[in-house]
Amino acid sequence: MSNIKFGPTGIGSVKDAVSNLEAYGKLGMKAAEVLFTYGVYIKNKEDAIKIGKAAKKLGIQLSVHSQYWVNLNSKEEEKIEASKKRILKCCEVGHLLGARRVVFHPGFYSGMESEQVAVKIREGILEMQEIVKKEKWDIELCPEVMGKVNVFGSIDEVAGLVRDTGCGFCIDLAHVLARYGKYEFDAIEKAFPQKKWHVHFSGIEYGEKGEKNHIVTPIEEWKKVLKFLKGLDKEVVLICESPDAVGDSVVGMKIWEEN
Ligand SMILES: [Zn+2]
Predict the structure, then answer these.
(1) How many CB atoms lie within 10 A of CB 59?
(2) CB 75 within 8 A of CB 112
(3) pLDDT by residue (tens digit) across 38-67?
């Protein structure tokens, strides 16, 4: 049976982060993802350290979600450089927070074949890994499985990056559902034999092109996904990304405990 750390996406503003984490702790949360999706908003080193210490004391494992404005396969070299800089900033602050993982959206196809794109993105990851190592940041780069069919980040594409660079990964099960029209549990299990999994989940609306919106997770979807995870033997951090991420995490945790 897997072991799951449940937690929501987002810890709130610098001012509210510690009290939010305390509230999460009271609810039994064991994880939380810091959202730098619109920028690295924790500017002071002292604040990052303070928030990280509070999380540690509460037994909450932090991770970071990097900026939406990232594309490691842009046709413009400057945009790739800017993307790497953004992700590395997340690594730097993430390290101060005591976060173990920086989740990022790897990039767009930009009209290229999957193979070519993989080469380019791999290059970017390897470069960033060198800097992370040099700076002694204790943090792992985790490209995410993406929910839109025109975005690089299928199950196999992410698994390929992991194989080729030794990076971490984020399996977004809602994205899988949106991209493939089903959860593809078997394929996921095969593609990610690693013991430690970083998972995103929520309800999702989708169409032919994949992901449209994240929604509150229907109970039935929780049950399907938790049953799958229960049947494995993994150490899972499960970040809920629904519009009610905290309430929904509590629901998921209860279902996990009762089934
Ligand atoms: Zn994401």
Answers:
(1) 12
(2) no
(3) 999 999 999 999 999 999 999 999 999 999
- Rounded to whole angstroms, the Cα distance separating 27 from 94 reads 24
Mean pLDDT of the chain: 96
Q: How many domains does one find in the chain?
A: 1
Dist. CA 68 → ligand 1 center (Å): 8
Query: Using an 8 Å Cβ cutoff, are 73 and 112 in contact?
Result: yes
Whole-number Å distance, alpha carbon 160 to ligand 1 midpoint, is 18
Tell me how far the alpha carbon of residue 105 lies from the centroid of ligand 1, in angstroms: 6
Q: Which structure tokens are listed for 46?
A: 């002292």
Which residue range forms the structural domain that includes residue 135?
A: 3-258
| Mean pLDDT calculated for residue range 150-161 | 97
Please give the model's pTM, rounded to 2 decimal places. Answer: 0.96
CATH of residue 205's domain is: 3.20.20.150
Q: From CA 259, how far away is CA 253, in angstroms rounded?
A: 10
What is the CA(169)–ligand 1 centre distance, in A? Answer: 11
CA of 104 to the centre of ligand 1 (A): 6
Beta bridge partners of 101: 140
